[in-house]
Predict the structure.
Amino acid sequence: MLSYRHAFHAGNFADVLKHLVQVEILNYLKQKDKPFAYIDTHAGAGIYSLSSEEAGKNEEFRTGISILKGKPLAGTEDYLEVVAGCKPEWDKSAVPAAGLYPGSPRIAQQMLRAQDSAHLFELHPQDFRRLDAMVARDRRMHAHNSDGFSGLLGLLPVAERRALVLIDPPYEVKSDYDTLVETVKKAHRKFATGVYALWYPVVDRQRIDKMEKALINSGIPRIQLFELGVGEDTEGRGMTSSGMIVINPPFTLMGNMQKLLPQLTQRLAGDNGVWRCEELVGE
Ligand SMILES: C[S@@+](CC[C@H](N)C(=O)[O-])C[C@H]1O[C@@H](n2cnc3c(N)ncnc32)[C@H](O)[C@@H]1O
C-alpha cells in the first residue's frame, strides 16, 4: 500500500522549511567534536533529479527551492550550499538540466563528519534501492528496509549520547499522526537528550491541533514549532502549510527562525503566506 513517492514533491516549500531546520540542527551538533548519530525514520530515496518525470509532473520544486535559489535570503546560505553541493558520484558532469535536490539522508551524508554515524529507514522497495546505493560505500551510514518507527526505538539510546532524529512520515496512513506521537513519547523515555525533529503537513488543521495537544500533554519539555504556509488552511483540499516540531532545539533555533520565517514566507508565497514560530513547551 505504499504509493507515496517523495520524487513528486522534492524541493517544494515544505522541503525547504524541513531541510533548513535540519541543516541548522546538524550545524549546531557539529560545534562540538564529540560524535553524534543521525536517525532518519522515513528517509526516502536520498537524492532527486528535478528533471525526472516524477518531479516534472507538478513541478513542485517551483514553490520552494527554485524561488530561493534564484533569490537567496540571509540565513539560508548553509542550506543552499548543501543543495549546490549535491552532485552525482557516478558522473559529476551529469547534473540534470533542472538540477538535483538532496533529500534528508543526502543532506546528512554531505554534512556528517568521519566520527558521526547515521541510520536510515525506508520501506518503499524502489526508493530503498536508491537510498542503499547512495550509502553503499559510506561506512558511516546504514540503510534499513524496515519500519522507521520501531527501528528508531530499537536504536535508542545511542552510544554517542548525542543525536538528531528526523521523523518525516508521508501520513498516507492516517494512523501515522498517532503513531508519531506514541513513538516520540517512548523514544523520549529511552533517550531524553536527543534532538527530535518532527515534520507535519497541514491538510486537515484539526489533526495538527490534536498532535500539538498530545505533545504538550506528554510531559516532554522544550518543544518548539515552526510552520510555513503558502495560503490559508483549506478543509482537506491539499497541503497548504507544513511545519517542524523540534524537541530539545538548539538554543539558537528560535531566534534564527523568528528572523528568517517571515522573510522566507514572503519570498515563497508573497502576501498569501502564513507562518508560525512558537514555543509549545518551555524548560
Ligand atoms: C516524506 S518521505 C521522506 C522524505 C525524506 N525524509 C526527505 O526529507 O528527503 C516519506 C518516506 O517514508 C517512507 N515510509 C512510509 N512509511 C514508512 C515506515 N513506516 N518506515 C519507513 N519508511 C516509511 C515512504 O516510502 C517515503 O519514501
User: Anything to note?
Assistant: Residues 85 and 110 are 8 Å apart (CA to CA). The longest strand covers residues 195-202.
